[in-house]
Amino acid sequence: MTGLDYTAPGVVGFAMTLITIMLTVISIVRERTNGTLTRILIGPVHPWEVTIGYALALTLVSFLQMGELFLVSRFLFNIRFVGSPFLVAVVVLVYAIGLQAMATLLSTVARNEFQAMQFILVILIPSIMISGVFWPIEAMPPGIRPIVWFSPLTYANLALREIMLRGRGIADIAWQLGALSGFAIVMLVFAIRSMRHQGYTA
Questions:
Q1: Which residue, 71, 159, 188, 189, is most buried by CB atoms nearer than 10 A?
Q2: What is the pLDDT of residues 44-79, one digit of tens each?
Q3: How far apart are the first and last CA of the chain?
């Protein structure tokens, strides 16, 4: 196993975080500032339907982009991949849903695209530093280690490493997958509530 093999799952997870959040936040903020989102919310639809619709559509786009990234890393850079592609797809899908919901929440809070980009930077920079993308969690200072578990990228990174590098099964990543599922559910609930508030103010 090379250093590139070790960092590849984390880089893929970070790239997914970057692409998904930027794509979602910029798209929804632009629709809101143009009045498109307001017209949707005053129509005969529920806020949860709008939120789920955004999540499903943009998750599909992110999922396809991640598939392309995995293919490039595997066949162009010859990254180690000994696990189940289906299990990787499950982790990516659950993580993407959580990211979409979080990005939807951020986009309903941001007043404009500039503020949305500030929110993105606040999330992304700490994530790449504390989630174990480039160095093991065990190598971090003891005072920082408890903080890493507040980042969903940490769980995605660990799960992808277990599958891609060690060929682990679903039982071995159950707690990481459970944490990502909990993250997705919580973010969806908050996103729906925020979208409902947008509907009241529309």
A1: 159
A2: 777 778 778 877 877 787 778 777 877 887 777 778
A3: 54
Give 193's pLDDT tier (boundaries 50, 70, 90): confident
Domain that holds residue 158: 3-201
Angle formed by the axes of helices 85-109 and 3-34, nearest 10°:
40
Q: pTM surpassing 0.90?
A: no
Residue 29, CB-side half-sphere exposure with 13 Å CA sphere: 22
Mean pLDDT score across all residues of the chain: 81
What is the three-state SS of the chain?
CCHHHHHHHHHHHHHHHHHHHHHHHHHHHHHHHHCHHHHHHCCCCCHHHHHHHHHHHHHHHHHHHHHHHHHHHHHCCCCCCCCCHHHHHHHHHHHHHHHHHHHHHHHHHCCCHHHHHHHHHHHHHHHHHHCCCCCCHHHCCCCCHHHHHHCHHHHHHHHHHHHHHHCCCHHHHHHHHHHHHHHHHHHHHHHHHHHHHHHHHC
> Percent of the chain, pLDDT > 90?
8
Q: Which two tokens stand for residue 170?
A: 């679903």
Answer yes or no: are the C-beta atoms of 88 and 70 closer than 8 Å.
Answer: yes
Name the domain count of the chain.
1
Query: What is the b/e burial string over 44-58, where b = at least 16 CB atoms within 10 angstroms of the residue's CB?
Result: eeebeebbbebbeeb
